Amino acid sequence: MKRKTICKIPMFCALLLCFCVVFNSGLVFAAVTPDFLDVDSIEIIERHGIVEGATFRLSAEIMPENTLESAVKWSSSNPSVISCTDDGKITGMSAGGYADITCKAKLGSESDKIRVYCVESIGSPVKSGFENFSTPIYAAPTASKIVAWHLDFASLIRNFIRIVAPVMKYIVPPGTTANVNEMMFFNSKCEILGKYKSYAYITFDNGSEKRDGFVKYSRLSNIPKDFLELSAKNMNVWGDGIAYSGKVLTSDYKGEIKWKVADESVVKFNDETGQVTGLKPGKTTITATADGMTKECTIHSLYRWPQTWKTKTNCDTSLYTADTSEYKVTKTLPILTSFEVYGDNGTSDGWAYGCATINGIDYWGYIPIDKVSVKGTISQYNNMNWPWPVVTPSGKNKADYISSPYGRRNRGTGMHKGIDITTGTPSEINGYEVISAFSGTVNYVSRNEDLLWGYCVAITSDESIKDPISGKQFVAIYMHLKNKPEFFVGQTVKAEKLIGYVGTTGDSDGYHLHFEVNNQTGSIYEVNGKEYSEAGRKSYNSLINPVFFYMNDGIRYNPNSEAELYYYKTYWYGND
C-alpha cells in the first residue's frame, strides 16, 4: 500500500510541470496583472465644455505609464446634464448646467476630477478673431480661472513675451484667480462652438494642441447673430394702456440684459416679464444691451378704433407689414377683398391696421386707407386738432355730452348726419358759445327759425384744410342756434370765431347744438323755397362722424340712444 502511494507523487508532479509549461504565459499574466492595474496618479487632460448633443472622449495621463486603461473608471456627477461612460466618453445632454467628471482607479483611491459645462449649440462653428489686444480665456463661463491668455503681438515681440509671461498671471481682471495654465498663444483665430449665458464657448490652437475655453462675447470680432436675439424685430400693440397677452418681448440670452425704451410716453415695458403695453399711438424702440451687443425692436403703438369697420378694397392693392420704419408688401389683395379695420397707426399718413380675409383665411397687416374708403383714418382727423365747437363758461358743467350720436335713427328721419351736443342735463347748455372748428368761408346762413335746422350757419374750410383722402375741403354746419346769425355768405371766419349761441330753434326737442361735417364741400341748398342738405341728398359717403375729430377729448355719449341700441353704435364709420 505505501509503495503504491509514493509512486503516485512523482506522477502528480510531472503532470503539474506539464501544465505549467503549456500555460506558462497565462500564469505569468496572472502573476503580473495586479501590477498593470496599480495606479500611482491620475491627471485628466483638461476639457471645459461640450456642446449639447455632442460627444467627446476624455483622456487622462495615468502613472505608471504601463497601466492599463481598464484600471480606471469614469463617472459624471450630473448625468442629466452630461452623461459619461465607464471609459470616459461624455455626451452633452442639457445645455445650461455642468457636471464634475471623475476618473478613479479601480484599485486604490487615486482619482482626478474636472468640471465640464454643457453649452448651447449655435449650429455650425463660427470662425472669429479677438477684438482686444489682450483677451483672457476662462475655464468656466465665469471670470474665475484663466486657462489661456491671447495677446495680439506680432512675431517680432515673441521673445519679449517670454520675458513678460511669468508676470502675466498676476495681471488679471479684478476678482479672478491668477491660475494661468497657458500664459498666451499667438494664433489670433478661434472657433465659436456654442454659448453659455454671456460667454462664448471656443476652441483655439495654442501652437502645439487644440484647447477650449470661454470668452466674453465682447472680446470677439465676429459674434454670431443669434447670441443676442429678441423674440421680435417689430411689434404692433394697441396704444390704449391695456396689457394684452402675447405682446411680450423677451430673449433666450442667459446673461444680464439691460432694456431701454426710447420713448416711455408711447409704451411701457416690464423687463422682468417682457410685457409691452401701448400707452398712446406712436412709434418707439426697445433696446436690449448685453456684453457689448445691442438688439432693437421697433414698437408700433396703434390707435384702436372704438368700433371696427367692415369694408372691401376698392381696387387691386397690397397688404403690408411694418418693418421698422418701412412698410413691406406681404400679400396681394384683389379688388373687393373683405377687410375689417381695427385701428390705424396713429399718424396723419393714412395707414389703417386690420384683417383681410381671403378664401376664409385671415391676414393681419396695414393697408392705405384710401384703398378701402373715401374717408381718412380716425387718427388723421383727430390729428387736425380742431377746437370743440361749444365753449363751456367758467363754473358751468362741461358741454361734452353727445345726446344723439351720428348714425341711424328710428324716428322716420332716417340718417342723423351729425352729433347733438349738450351737457347731459336738460336745457343747461342754453346760451353756451358756439365757435368755428376751423378757418374758412361762410357758404350758407339761415335766418328763419322755423326751418328744420332753425338758425344755422355753414362754413367751408380754407384751401389749406382738406380731407386727407378725398382732397376736398370740409364743410361744418352749426344748427339750432339761439339768435339770428349776423354772418353773410362769402364772409371769412377764423378758427374759434364766435358763431352764435346754443339754442333750440327749428325742429328741436331741447337746447343742443347739432354739429355736422362732410368732405364733399356739400352744404345746405334751396329748391323752390325749401332748404335741403346737399350732403344728405347725394350719399352718406360724404358725411364724416364728427366724433373722429375729437376722439381724445374725453367725450361722453348717451348709451341709450337709438344709434347705440339699435344701429351702428356711437362710433359708426361706414356707408348707408
Supply database-style keywords:
nine-stranded mixed sheet; Immunoglobulin-like; mainly beta; 576 residues; rod-shaped; 11% helix; 4 domains; seven-stranded mixed sheet; 6 helices
Structure description:
By secondary structure, this protein is mainly beta. The protein folds into four domains: 41-120, Sandwich (Immunoglobulin-like), CATH 2.60.40.1080; 123-226, no CATH class; 233-383, Immunoglobulin-like, CATH 2.60.40; 385-566, Glucose Permease (Domain IIA) (Distorted Sandwich). The protein contains six helices and 41 strands. The strands form eleven sheets. Strands 27, 30, 32, 33, 34, 35, 37, 40 and 41 form a nine-stranded mixed β-sheet that branches. Strands 2, 5, 8, 9, 12, 13 and 14 form a seven-stranded mixed β-sheet that branches. Strands 15, 16, 19, 20, 23, 24 and 25 form a seven-stranded mixed β-sheet that branches. It is rod-shaped. The N and C termini lie far apart (136 Å). Residues 1-9, 12-32, 174-185 and 534-538 have low confidence and may be disordered.
